[in-house]
Amino acid sequence: MPPGTLVYTGERTRDDKVTLSVFDYDANHLNEIPFDSVDACLSRCETPTVTWINVEGLHDVGVIERIGKGYGIHPLALEDVLTTQERPKIEDYDDRIFLVVQMLSWDDGSQSIATEQVSFVLGPHFLITFQEPAGDVFDPVRKRLREGRGRMRRLGPDYLLYALLDSIVDSYFTILERLDDRIESLETELTDIPGPTTVHAIHSLRREMILLRRNVWPLREVLGGLDRGDSTLVQAETRLFLRDVRDHSIQVIETVETFRDLLTGMLDIYLSTLNYRMNAVMKVLTIIATIFIPLSFVTGIYGMNFEHMPELHWRWGYPAALAGMFGVGGVMLWVFHRRDWL
Amino acid sequence: MPPGTLVYTGERTRDDKVTLSVFDYDANHLNEIPFDSVDACLSRCETPTVTWINVEGLHDVGVIERIGKGYGIHPLALEDVLTTQERPKIEDYDDRIFLVVQMLSWDDGSQSIATEQVSFVLGPHFLITFQEPAGDVFDPVRKRLREGRGRMRRLGPDYLLYALLDSIVDSYFTILERLDDRIESLETELTDIPGPTTVHAIHSLRREMILLRRNVWPLREVLGGLDRGDSTLVQAETRLFLRDVRDHSIQVIETVETFRDLLTGMLDIYLSTLNYRMNAVMKVLTIIATIFIPLSFVTGIYGMNFEHMPELHWRWGYPAALAGMFGVGGVMLWVFHRRDWL
Amino acid sequence: MPPGTLVYTGERTRDDKVTLSVFDYDANHLNEIPFDSVDACLSRCETPTVTWINVEGLHDVGVIERIGKGYGIHPLALEDVLTTQERPKIEDYDDRIFLVVQMLSWDDGSQSIATEQVSFVLGPHFLITFQEPAGDVFDPVRKRLREGRGRMRRLGPDYLLYALLDSIVDSYFTILERLDDRIESLETELTDIPGPTTVHAIHSLRREMILLRRNVWPLREVLGGLDRGDSTLVQAETRLFLRDVRDHSIQVIETVETFRDLLTGMLDIYLSTLNYRMNAVMKVLTIIATIFIPLSFVTGIYGMNFEHMPELHWRWGYPAALAGMFGVGGVMLWVFHRRDWL
Amino acid sequence: MPPGTLVYTGERTRDDKVTLSVFDYDANHLNEIPFDSVDACLSRCETPTVTWINVEGLHDVGVIERIGKGYGIHPLALEDVLTTQERPKIEDYDDRIFLVVQMLSWDDGSQSIATEQVSFVLGPHFLITFQEPAGDVFDPVRKRLREGRGRMRRLGPDYLLYALLDSIVDSYFTILERLDDRIESLETELTDIPGPTTVHAIHSLRREMILLRRNVWPLREVLGGLDRGDSTLVQAETRLFLRDVRDHSIQVIETVETFRDLLTGMLDIYLSTLNYRMNAVMKVLTIIATIFIPLSFVTGIYGMNFEHMPELHWRWGYPAALAGMFGVGGVMLWVFHRRDWL
Amino acid sequence: MPPGTLVYTGERTRDDKVTLSVFDYDANHLNEIPFDSVDACLSRCETPTVTWINVEGLHDVGVIERIGKGYGIHPLALEDVLTTQERPKIEDYDDRIFLVVQMLSWDDGSQSIATEQVSFVLGPHFLITFQEPAGDVFDPVRKRLREGRGRMRRLGPDYLLYALLDSIVDSYFTILERLDDRIESLETELTDIPGPTTVHAIHSLRREMILLRRNVWPLREVLGGLDRGDSTLVQAETRLFLRDVRDHSIQVIETVETFRDLLTGMLDIYLSTLNYRMNAVMKVLTIIATIFIPLSFVTGIYGMNFEHMPELHWRWGYPAALAGMFGVGGVMLWVFHRRDWL
Lengths: 342, 342, 342, 342, 342
Description:
Chain A is of the alpha+beta class and 342 residues long. Chain A contains nine helices and seven strands.
């Protein structure tokens, strides 16, 4: 297919309707309008105030295309909007800044991380967000918009972008906590009764770590690009805040690296524990065998049926044989003791 | 041999004819001409419109040389065209940009990646591609050229170059999917009945990973060089698209790195599984031996043929011996149980 | 919560009072005033002399907020002050430089490193430090201020900042010494009687190393940023000193890396020691079993009750059998000896 | 010794004579003169044409010194000429460029890489090469000079330098092929009957890899320095060619890295193969022991000589005992089968 | 303690006297004066010629302080002079360049590397060196000064600094040779009879490697800083020489890295050798046990005392039993042979 062809690559969910919700605000007023049709939205959204258009549901390519045309979004950006599982990235089309970011959530069912792609288009007076219907991560931002306190309503769409990115990065920390819990429970498992399931759990956790890492490393660059870029769409005041989110993303990265280190260390512990146990088991076997095999040999000798075996007829032959055998056994135990095998 | 000496280093295929096909187009017209002789091609290809010359088959050095002379290609570039297995690279000869890229395909027979080298020469009005006869990867591009929709026909040879590179990088994703399938099937094998074949499969997969990596890492630089370079042969509009392919190549790289990580982890799992099984086997052996070897020793004692063994003549000697032995065995089982060996 | 919302994330300690202590000095005078209320402090601290305000206890958000307003500290900085466990960082707000640093101390109880966050706000005539009530690390600095010798009183708040940072980094070396002791005692343990506890000790030490590393790596950048930054708040004379602390922080990093290397090597030693012991144990078992099992087989043969076994009736049958068995045993010992198994 | 003191550090070969051979050429003429004495050479070599002086044999320090003086070579450069085993390097002394490079060859006897140092001094009209008597790697270059085809004779000494460097780097590929063969034969060995010799072979191969790497990594920088440097001694036309050799050196580096990866992987395979075999061996032992040790215990019981053992006198005692034993054995085999041990 | 407080942190040696020796020279004259008191030295050392003051012994803080004051050395530099075990560093105080370097020597007693700190202060007409009394590494430099040949006397104190640094770096190569010897002897040990001592030797060697690395890595930067710095204290002519020492330090680094690689490889060999031996031992055990345990079971059967065992009364029962047992044993051997276990 030619580049710029719009195809939705995500899973098609049942509810077929794409919903558009618009927040139109300045420091004093806030208009919150849900839309059914794109055209209605396009015709009414050209205001000098800040406009945030949130598009939930990406399966209707026609809707996305019309929004793209209405707001002058580059076809390549639209393609990326629809290609879920895109790597986080930033693209500066002069008068539009386009961002792709992955929203992460912990799926309790599969004990793994689920990803939802969110795309942002920042223009002079508006911010458009595209997402699959899922997240309530943006709800606190909506609430703050409605309440109208703080900087939120006073500043432009770049600050809104920051606020949304901030809430996404904040949600990463929740996932880190979950992973931390899993690691800790694995560590206690390791000291108790580690088995093959422990290793598989470590392996699948490492998998999640890799996934997380792939999403957060480029995110740092994206946030850095937004802060350092020379676009006039991002105000100096907002850059300070962007730097703060970027610091948070670095903290996420460092925690992930720490977790990876810990997991590697845990595998080492598992292997050395196995080895140590094998050692212990082998020692027991060896001690038992080394003591009794020679003694059994002696009993075998006196169990032979030769006609002429003088010892058998001695008066104290049996007690002597017993004494000899126990003596040898005792000496062996003493040797093992001295070699620290007991 | 002196540098610039042209020698074909690939395998000589049976069909000896080098085929040239030319697309000559602008926004309104498209001429598609297959050529038999190089001279005919050279004499008729000097048009102000965009000319795409595709050379299929590299074994006829003379043909390559004449094309090189006709289009002012640097001898070193021609040498690279013929040296298959060249590292992906870009070379900017002022009024010609030369690129070498590897086309990858999955060979089901040997379960490995096969490479085909493709070279590009981009000039002011033309693009020449050299390839060994194999790929139908370019067919979609040809189809789009014939249909004449989109940007394709409107823009210059640099956009055509982009479109071809894009279709090559897209084909990498197909290979990644194949590798992903292999990795997943290996993972289920690991949890079931891993054997030496599993390890060899992991090893050969790592080999393919290394091959893939060696081709994609430099490709990223090549695409980056094309985008950032200051050549006038690449239009600003095309650069945006080149950045997009480059992002895709980075995605390929990251997936490959992820796969490598997973394969390393799988080896660890394999080793620890082996260790664990050995542990289990050794425990069984130890338990059996530890219980029965001492008991056998007791039977050995009463199997001795000493004349004077009072126990043998006791009325309850035999039942007492049996009871004693079973008692010892039971105690041992209990000890093993307490030490968590059962 | 919106960014800039002030929430204290640390543990709430029992003593509820936030204490403010102020040092106001120049080369000739020193005023040391403890404050109860923030307002009193704010109204009396606007002097042309150097003012160091130390805020001990962070749980009273209102106090922090009023200080922030009184001294023009950016809300994001205030948020970081309260978010303990923040990554060390530096932020340059033109006329204020904000720093977060972690103070480390060795907790003998849990045998691990405890962290306390310290934040600094450097202004034209003042330095504000925020810390949780714990450290007496700053006491030597206070003493030097009171004594008034050296550069301390002559130079501005930037030198005071340096002196405090220096005392923090110096305290890191104490921790390194503790870790060094632990590593050495583990090494002697390794050559003596390594067991699973050794591995767990190595693992938990690695954990501390990771924690230390996460705090010192960014600290280096922070100190470098302070030195290289072009803020007028830091005098040229102080920069020389800052470079010196930075060198110390690099030394800490290198020591940590060395420790990590050593710990990895210790794990290798542990594993190979286990393997070697297993080898030794197995050899003993094999030698015993290989010698006595065949001999026992021979005794078994002559213990059979067949009617017609001519050997049993031979005059020298028994001595011959004994001699044969000891002969075979001797030969085996000799073979083992030649194969270096004894 | 003071720096610049000339001492030959290589092995002294038997033939004591240092031989000088001179090629003096321009596009139309070629003079090939062998020299016996340095002075004769010095007096006759000041021509406006390109002069290539090849010095074979470095043990006569006096000769080297006189050449150095005659051609204005810096004492430090002369010192490096004589210090064989020098790291590849480039030094730009304004009107002289000095290069040290290692020529590598595969020594079939010791199955390892042998190195020969070659030094180059590039001046405005001349190129001096110093080498120990060994290589015929330069012969093809000499042949091309004599034949006078191509660019060779038309361009200056910088192109000659390029041609010589190119032939050296080309010879690296021969070594890579040898190493590749060794690796492949080791891989088949691994799947067949790996033993300790395999590991030692892998280890010694890694050693060669390290050696190769130490020589090729700096070579890349050297070639890059020659290309990017702003010396007027290197013409723009030659720089294109130098970039080509540099690409080749990168290809060598990447192949070496690939080999290292493969060798590491092979060690892993070896270890896991050993582990797997041990597992198989242990299983056999355990099955045999687990089946027969309990059965032997039963035979031991009925081999005891108690007077009162009723079973011994039963009519069907013997068959019943046999049947019981075979039954137990059969059940055990069935259990092993179900646990996938057979 | 405040920064700049002078405390000697090294070991206090018995000889309490700090000795000062002065070389005062230009191209024509050389004055060599040993001093007892600092004041005498200070008063007589202000000459326009080059003055090299060597301070041996650092335990007398007063002496160091007076020298520091006399020659305008920054207090931080003086502090570093006294803090032995300082990381190699360079500090440019405009009209003074301060360097710290570690002198290394091999201590045969403890089979480890001993370090001695040397500090340099380079001023316009003088060089001051501070060292603990130990090294005769500088003696060759003194000899060359006295002989007055070469550049030494003609050039300034920067060249003297170079000569001293060069002799220090040269001494590193001696240590590398020692380490090389140790590694080689360990390698032969590995192929012969590796034991736990081999592993400990490898570990302690790695330790030395880490120490060496920590001293040489920063040294490279120090030498690079000296060469690239824009201080007028270092002449252009000397910079060429400094580049040469820097190349040597890089060579040291690369050798150390190679050694580390080799040592890691040796550990792998050790582990796989252990594993292989265990395999061999286990095979012997398994073969013996697998052959004889079933046979012993047969003898056990015919050793039972049942009344009604028809086989016992057969004429050829005994030979048949023997033949059967040897037959089974033979078949087993043949099976083992086919499975490549013998």
